[in-house]
Amino acid sequence: MNLTSTAYYWLEQGSRISPSKEIEIGRFSARQVPGVAAFNGRLFLVGGYDGQLRNDVWSSADGKNWTRVTPAAAFSPRRSFCMTVYNGQLWLIGGYDGTNVLNDIWVSSDGITWTQKATLPGLLGTRGGLPDRLPKSPLADRRL
User: Where are the domains of the chain?
Assistant: First the structure.
């Protein structure tokens, strides 16, 4: 699959927004719904779908030059997952493997070595990562 249009990225932190930079796709395949996070001064692109589900990990210091960190991480290939940074680690949560909605949690301090964390019952439900039962809002009773 080839990307034929120009893509850009920028970083936002609160009200601060960096200038946009052009992304030159050439190292990893164009893909749908990968996870992307800024971590330790680098961008990390994980998994997604390019005609097949992926579990590879790429990183870049500038958004133009990408290096494959690992061709196949410890977690199963997937798309549509939550990717974030918390407590000095990359976190990958849930996703979809083409058949099942996943509720596993994986963490990494370098993008290479991934460790599975225990999940909490009911943390991720069957509705694309949302809990099966959402907590009742105080606004529902018109009180805060």
Answer: 32-124
82 and 75 Cβ atoms separated by less than 8 Å: no
**CATH architecture classification, 32-124:** Beta Barrel (2.40)
- Token output for 106: 């994986």
DSSP state of 139: G
Which H or E run includes 60?
strand 53-60
Q: What is the pLDDT along the chain (144 residues), one digit of tens a residue?
A: 444 556 666 777 788 888 877 665 557 888 899 999 999 999 999 999 999 999 999 999 988 888 899 999 999 999 999 999 999 999 999 999 999 999 899 999 999 999 999 886 665 554 444 444 444 444 444 443
Rounded Cα distance, 38 and 62, in Å: 11
Non-local CB neighbours of 85 within 8 Å, separated by 6+ positions: 37, 38, 39, 91
Q: What are phi and psi of 68, to 5 degrees?
A: -75, 120
Q: What is the dihedral of CA 111, 116, 118, 124, to 10 degrees?
A: 70
Residue 122: alpha-carbon gap to chain centroid? 21
